[in-house]
Amino acid sequence: MSNYLVIVESPAKAKTIERYLGKKYKVKASMGHVIDLPKSQMGVDVEAEYKPKYITIRGKGDILKELRKEAKKATKVYLAADPDREGEAIAWHLAHALKIDEDSKCRVVFNEITKDAIKESFKHPRKIDYNLVDAQQARRVLDRLVGYNISPLLWKKVKRGLSAGRVQSVAVKLIIDRENEIKNFVPEEYWSIEGTFLKEKDNFIGKFYGIEGKKLELKNEQEVKDILNRLTEKQFKIDKVNKRERRRNPARPFITSTLQQEAARKLNFRARKTMMIAQQLYEGIDLGRKSGGITGLITYMRTDSTRISASARSETIAYIEEKFGKNYIGASPKGKQQEGAQDAHEAIRPTSVLREPSSLKGILSNDQLKLYKLIYDRFLASQMAPAVMDTMTVHLLNNGVEFRATGSKIKFKGFMTVYIEGTDHGKKDEEKYLPDLEEGELINFKDLQPNQHFTQPPPRYTEATLVGTLEKQGIGRPSTYAPTLDTIQRRGYVRLDNRRFVPTEIGEIVTEILEEYFPEITNVDFTVQMEDNLDLIEEGKVGWINIIDDFYKDFELRLEKAEDEMKEIEIKDEPAGIDCEKCGSPMVYKMGRYGKFMACSNFPDCRNTKPILKKIGVTCPLCKKGEIVERKSKKNRVFYGCDSYPECEFVSWDKPINRSCPKCNEFLVEKRTKKQVQIKCSNCDYKEEAQS
Q: What is the pLDDT of residue 341?
């Protein structure tokens, strides 16, 4: 018979942990929160020191009844929710609901679901940490005060279905600010000169640097001509050769934000998908009876700590020495954690470095294997030796005009044998070869190529770069990034265009209102300060009620002012210029969750709607009558079709262009990859490089 009851959050975890603990333990799942603030009302008594009104979540009554029944039979109840603020709050609610002594050592935490980690954690149960509970409670109350006061105001004054929140409103503001930067950007002209130099049979590239040792920016074509006119010598003289050894250190193991960013760059995963798969890997995968059954493959995936346990480090060092050699072992990583990091956690890592990704083929799904390999490789590389590069910079002179050529080659690959961190621009590091060159040597040049350039506006945010910005500025915490990105899209404040965020009209309207009446809600500094305050609550340095009260005094005054002064905003329907084919009434442009669409003005009697089609100026190659338009699939992927659909069923994933193939006369398409744009024939093997 079971003597002890253990309560975790998910059934997958329950099965794994019960097997590790043995027959004396029964493990049940609470299925996340069982008690929370009500959805139908704010649930915070402002007059009674912001006392939360907690209720049993609808649909969780039977679960709570079962847990109470099992708790009465047990000698001891352990609460093993996730090791973060939210998990601590869940444990606290369960302790109250099950009448567990609050001063008893009933709380068990672990960062990985492995046999050793679970058994060790049950040797050291602790009391519920009320500082963690208060920090989570403060966040929930704060979000309720903001969301449940501003959202009804937006419904009343603008449109039903809108909402506001501390982190989501700042995220939308960042996207809008970036869009305004792009719109207001004025390109500036600049030039470069690239030279192809010859050393016997070897060619290498050098770029114009300056004159008489001073760096010079070339702003127009006349300045370029002046430089070229100064090149009176037939050869360049090598004035200086700098050779040095450069060490490149590996990236630290993943935290939540860096995992989301790298999974977006390398695997094309959305933040929500990354966290869903990471949760599966953490909670446990059935590896088969011979391999240990259900086993947690990675440590806890909501963390902002890069710390590694001594046992994990020790196992990894031994693995590296055996597989790669002693010289590949890296020194123990040094340096501070990021400010506010919860150092009780570890970084995201495999629970055993001995469990290589190749051994899990056929056991994990394709997506699970991809993410596991990414986590595994990053962690392994983080414990390896730096890469060593031989670098060379050559200064070439011709009548005082200086060109410079740089080159590098890998002397020792170190961690790069396993993993190289991705970049947002998609370019990979490449070795640049330079031949052996000596000071005083005369070098011929093949040609000097002037190139005109224009400065580019900052790029729109991707999910990866937005998460990176939120993290860098201290907005939100690991658990908030994925749901925040999801919320701002569901509310229709932003949309994804070619995987980049674009604000919608409704997003701009709501943000403008918030900036006028509630400036702190969209203010980055305020949001960061509030996160710091939550950290102070967690550390026991300040009371949560004081933090909430300081905020609410000013917020309440702003709320009253907004109620009195905010005018109702009517988002008028714009005439679309065409009539409804079903009833003959004029069609209008309406604002929906995903931007504008066409609808019949005779709604609700006529419910005809149409997407707004973007024409690309190409005649349909199939029917020769209709025009090609840009459409979107159910998964928001862009494709191209005839505007005469369904009469003409032409579709193409690649963008057709207004030229025919010179070989077979079929239509050509523009095929885009991350690296290049190519023009290809839709029928034969003809292809050409697209002109930039």
A: 44
